[in-house]
UniProtKB/TrEMBL annotation:
<dbReference type="Pfam" id="PF00753">
    <property type="entry name" value="Lactamase_B"/>
</dbReference>
<keyword id="KW-0479">Metal-binding</keyword>
<keyword id="KW-0862">Zinc</keyword>
<dbReference type="InterPro" id="IPR001279">
    <property type="entry name" value="Metallo-B-lactamas"/>
</dbReference>
<keyword id="KW-0378">Hydrolase</keyword>
<dbReference type="InterPro" id="IPR051453">
    <property type="entry name" value="MBL_Glyoxalase_II"/>
</dbReference>
<protein>
    <submittedName>
        <fullName>MBL fold metallo-hydrolase</fullName>
    </submittedName>
</protein>
<feature type="domain" description="Metallo-beta-lactamase">
    <location>
        <begin position="10"/>
        <end position="224"/>
    </location>
</feature>
<dbReference type="GO" id="GO:0046872">
    <property type="term" value="F:metal ion binding"/>
</dbReference>
<dbReference type="InterPro" id="IPR036866">
    <property type="entry name" value="RibonucZ/Hydroxyglut_hydro"/>
</dbReference>
<dbReference type="GO" id="GO:0016787">
    <property type="term" value="F:hydrolase activity"/>
</dbReference>
């Protein structure tokens, strides 16, 4: 497993591979494409898909580019697929504008922290590209579905609240595996619920009934920030204590 940290919002992009070389890329944030391609080539991996833990643009910015370069689909929960077509309008409450670029016209954020972070990294809203190949899955909150590509299998667990389609990906087994938690769970914190599609009551249920019931032996790699463990978060995370 290899983690590439995106320059925009520090999104953790993870390359997950099986012993035979089959791999998927999870959460392709802005600015990770070249590093991911270099790792895949140097390790002799065979890309099968580009996954997203949810549809926010800081987790999908480079998804179309990597999907095209690897000739694979972008895969995410069906409830968040709409965000790929309108990444900025579906993320921020507030003022947006239509921006025309070489890849079409779409709504773009013209204020707020995301706009500042993109500008600082040299990424322009009009350069965002919607993936051409999108495959979706549907898994209800708290339920589990196995996604498989060749020798590689991940378990997708519905974990809504941060967004409607937020998903945990379980790789391996407790004690020898990791939960890719996206923006559901962080070290010492949890994902915000005040953006469009977020819901505090739904997040509370996810934290209680999904995260709270994970095996404590799982390692956790959040969508941003340092790795942690389920045991540590259950013991110290104030949002789980609630």
């Amino acid at each position: 497993m290899r983690v590439v940290v995106a320059p925009v919002f520090g999104t953790n992009c993870t390359v997950v591979s099986a012993p035979g070389g089959d791999c998927v890329v999870v959460d392709a944030g802005a600015g990770v494409a070249d590093a991911v391609v270099a790792h895949v080539r140097s390790a002799g991996l065979v890309p099968r898909a580009v996954l997203a833990t949810h549809g926010h643009v800081d987790h999908t910015w480079d998804a179309a580019e990597l999907a095209d370069r690897f000739d694979v689909p972008v895969v995410l929960h069906a409830a968040d697929a709409y965000r790929l077509a309108d990444p900025f309008g579906s993320l921020e409450h507030g003022r947006t504008a239509a921006v025309a670029g070489e890849r079409g016209t779409h709504r773009a954020l013209v204020s707020g922290p995301l706009g500042a972070a993109l500008a600082a990294a040299g990424a322009r809203p009009q350069d965002y590209r919607e993936p051409a190949r999108v495959e979706t899955f549907d898994v209800p909150a708290g339920e589990e579905r196995t996604l498989r590509w060749g020798a590689l299998g991940l378990r997708a667990v519905g974990a809504p609240g941060h967004t409607e389609g937020s998903t945990l990906y379980l790789v391996g087994e407790p004690g020898a595996g990791v939960v890719l938690s996206g923006d559901v769970l962080f070290a010492g914190s949890v994902g915000r619920t005040d953006l469009p599609g977020g819901d505090g009551a739904t997040m509370a249920r996810t934290l209680r009934d999904v995260v709270g019931r994970l095996d404590p032996e799982w390692d956790v790699l959040p969508g941003h920030g340092p790795a942690t463990t389920v045991a540590r978060e259950l013991a110290t995370n104030p949002f789980l204590a609630r």
